[in-house]
Amino acid sequence: MKKPYVIAINAVSGGGKTALARLVQESLPASMLFCFDDFDDTNIYPDDFYEWSRQGRNPLQIDCPGMGEAVARVYHQAKLKNIVLDYPLGRDHPRFASIINLSVFIDTPLDVAMARRILRDYAFAPPTSAAEKLKQLGTEMTHYLEKARYPYLDACKHKETADLILDGWRPLAELCDQVLAKTKANNATFVQ
User: Fold this and answer.
1) Which of 31, 44, 59, 188 could be a cystine partner for 82, CB 3.0 to 4.6 Å?
2) Is 131 exposed, middle or buried (0-12, 13-18, 19+ CB in 10 A)?
3) Using one digit for the tens of pLDDT, what is the confidence trace for 100-113?
4) How far apart are CA 7 and CA 187, in angstroms?
5) Which candidate, 86, 94, 92, 90, places its Cα nearest to that of 65?
């Protein structure tokens, strides 16, 4: 039985992982999408990402056992041809390294990723006063400048192990076409 073709899509937070993963999955036949954030209740993280980054960013301190179990349950289904992972570690973590056929990194400028994160997070935030939102945003930006920027920079190192590096400033449809073209070139059973 032929195993599904597994595409892992990685980027910094706000880099476009989820949007691209959804579009790729919708474009591929007999496919399933698994998003890292959907398994947040079982994901394991370092207590402090800044300290984690300063101590060498050991990828084994991050894990997603719930996502791993969900993928394992469907991996051997004959009807499934493609699996798309919205996954922030690519091949740099043993959880999925052995099954990933195509590792994609969206190289999104950090300012663009930050702007997207702010727009995303504040669009769904509970209604508060403008002054309160501004204060919260100021706190977040201060934290980013003092500490959070460093794990973001570390996340960019995942492109070193990616098979395909995409320009995160390009339109989403264009990025999807590039992933599909690479998938087609690599996968003899590709059907569109």
Assistant:
1) 31
2) exposed
3) 999 999 998 888 88
4) 11
5) 94
